[in-house]
Amino acid sequence: MTPLQLDLLTTHYNYYAVVLLLGIGLYMLVESANLVKKVIGMNVFQTGIFLFFITLAYRTGGNPPVITDGGGPYVSPLPHVLILTAIVVGVSLTAVALALIVRIYSEYGTLDEETLEQLYYD
Amino acid sequence: MTLTLLEGALLLFVLGCALGAALLRDTLASVMSFAAYSLGVSILWLILQAPDVGLTEAAVGAGIMTILLLVALANTVTPNADRLLESINPRTLVLVGGFVLVMGATVPALPAIGDPTAPVVGGEVTQYYLDNAYKQTDVKNAVTAVLAAYRGFDTLGEAVVVFAAGVAALSVLRREVFA
Predict the structure, then answer these.
(1) Measuring CA to CA, how many Å separate A95 from each of A38, A41, B24, B52, B127?
(2) Number of folded domains that form chain B
(3) Quick one: B57 and B122 in the same domain?
(4) Is some CB atom of chain B closer than 8 A to the CB atom of A49?
């Protein structure tokens, strides 16, 4: 590894973690045959994006954005708000997906993607 | 910010838990790995000075999400745990590897972590909220002020999404009585 890349790793480490989490989430979404694991993969992918936003909001030596006299500097509150909303929306999405999964199981008796495809085309 | 030992260890823990969730064949083990992952991520939010997000992640991500997944598992099946780990499909691995390389190539263009002159932290929107949130809303926590006052319609939309999700889940799960 060249010095330039090593330098990037020490200043951009969270972004590399974001990229890896997106990769793991995408792999689970594409490759998992089990539908529950697909939902977990979707959540891992989401959390990767959350980490990107919260890292962008961070500043060195910053305090949490609770305003006090002489309490600065603060990290940016706006990405925190967006991610709070996104977490709740993500849970709603997961709840609907899991409800669909329970329904699929009660109709077809399996959660395996390939078996479901065969059942569908038969 | 330079990488501290705590944060480095936490990032490795989070990535390891995500890998565990992806590769463990037993769905219950995968769910447990994901719960540990959520807990690690919520501590990561605390380190990044986002306590509100950390609290929500711990309560909703690690708490409610795990309960939902466990309830779903209790009502369905887990696959045969004949092997500990999933077999890896090389074709998908190449696809995901390409995606990771393309995304990774954009990382050097981003500002360094903690850079006070970066567009988000040093931007005028952030400065406006920090300067005026307490004066205009009487709320000391700027995150709450932005969430409930400045972006109140956003939060109303969020409530609509939660309501719609509840309706959708109930209508999907309703059993036909005269089937």
Answers:
(1) 13, 14, 22, 22, 37
(2) 2
(3) no
(4) no
Mutate: best of A13, A39, A45, A76, partner B, most B CBs <10 A? A76
**Residues spanned by the domain of B31:** 1-78
Nearest chain B residue to A84 by CA distance is B53
User: So what's the ipTM on this one?
Assistant: 0.91
Residue from A66, A68, A69, A93 to probe the interface with B (highest B Cβ count within 10 Å)? A66
Q: Is there a contact between A59 and B112 (Cβ–Cβ < 8 Å)?
A: no
- B1 belongs to a structural domain: yes
pLDDT in tens, B127-163: 888 888 888 888 888 888 888 889 889 899 999 999 9
Whether residue B8 is found in the same domain as residue B68: yes
Contacts of B93 in chain A (CB under 8 A): 27
Lowest mean pLDDT across A22-26, A83-87, A104-108: A104-108
Architecture of domain A3-121: Orthogonal Bundle (1.10)
Size of interface A-B (CB pairs under 8 A): 264
Rounded Cα distance between A121 and B15, Å, is 38
Q: Is B36 contained in some domain?
A: yes
- Cβ atoms B69, A34 nearer than 8 A: no
User: Token digits for B80?
Assistant: 């045969």
